[in-house]
Amino acid sequence: MKNKTASGVAEGRSSGLKSFKRHAEQDNAMSRINFSNQEVRLVLGKSAITFPDGYRSKVEKHWARINDNGQFFNGPVLAASSVTTDGSGPVVELSLTDYAHYLYAAQDLSHEFDCRAVFCAAAIVTSDNHLLFGEMAGHTSAPGQIQLPGGGVEMGTDGELDARTCCQREVAEELGREFLREGARFRPVSLKYGGNLSTVGIFYALSLDMTTEQAQDSFARYQSEQLAAGALPEFDRLHAVKFDLKALNQFFRLNKDRIVDYLAPLLEAGWDEASAALLSFKAETTSPDTWSGSHVLEPR
To answer: How many CB atoms lie within 10 A of CB 109?
Structure first.
């Protein structure tokens, strides 16, 4: 039986190079943000992604060029081979590729084989209504990029694939465990797929019981602890922006060359649904079943 994709188009399960390339070409045409409070289920497919020798050679040459000092590790990356829905909610089927492919595909303007890497990220709202964004450090693969705290979906040590666990782990690693202390509330907000890099993003809302000043102080302490332990923080800076559309518009304009591609579709074009989801959750005055919606957005 065929499943329905999150855009409502019927299609069967996909696997292998042909279907992977087809889905990447379709997704690259537009970004889709599907707002839902349902957990996204992750399923690992039976085979890894394989490419023709000619394409793999391009990936390896690019990797050798950007990693001549050995600063990056070519570890496994989980990429989406399909995005569907069933009776329990969204389902993302995953295939294994690697970080070298991810970095090559990110700069490949021809989009020969987009990686469709799957990541999770947290939209964090402080108790005084500010949204937090991290600025990537200079030693990372995207120095200066401004994004929500989060990272690639990874398999747990027990072999489990769980988006919520991955997102909470990323928040703790990037900002410190204080951000997940008792009083913080966490729930699904939306699923993003398509766009310039064809990535698939799983977004959660994290409502803090900390003010903006307390969050900044906690992050600064965590940075100091990391440096004292000989670790390099992933974020150089934590930006706090008032959670209203005008303030976000201004922040995005001022930093337009550094904003990650999903922020504008999620928080500008999707403002009505995003603000309703985040603020109703924060205030705990609205049933989670009262908001849902989707946008199909032209690429920016």
So the answer is: 6
Q: Which two tokens stand for residue 19?
A: 């279907």
Q: Are 191 and 295 in contact (CB under 8 A)?
A: no
Q: Which residue has 């706090």 as its token pair?
A: 240
Query: Do residues 145 and 106 lie in contact, with contact meaning Cβ atoms separated by under 8 Å?
Result: no
* Closest of 38, 37, 31, 39 to residue 269, by C-alpha: 31
Return per-residue pLDDT of the chain as tens, 300 residues: 333 333 322 233 333 444 444 444 444 456 788 898 899 999 998 878 888 889 999 999 999 999 998 888 999 999 999 998 887 889 999 999 999 999 999 899 888 888 899 999 999 999 999 999 999 999 998 999 999 999 999 988 787 899 999 999 999 999 999 999 866 788 999 999 887 778 999 999 999 999 999 999 999 999 999 999 999 999 999 999 999 999 999 999 999 999 998 999 999 999 999 998 887 777 663 333 333 333 333 333
Spatial separation of the C-alpha atoms in residues 238 and 174, rounded to whole Å:
10
- pTM of the predicted structure, to 2 decimals: 0.81
Nearest one of 110, 260, 235 to 176, comparing CA atoms: 235
Q: Give CA angle at 167 (166, 171), nearest 5°.
A: 120
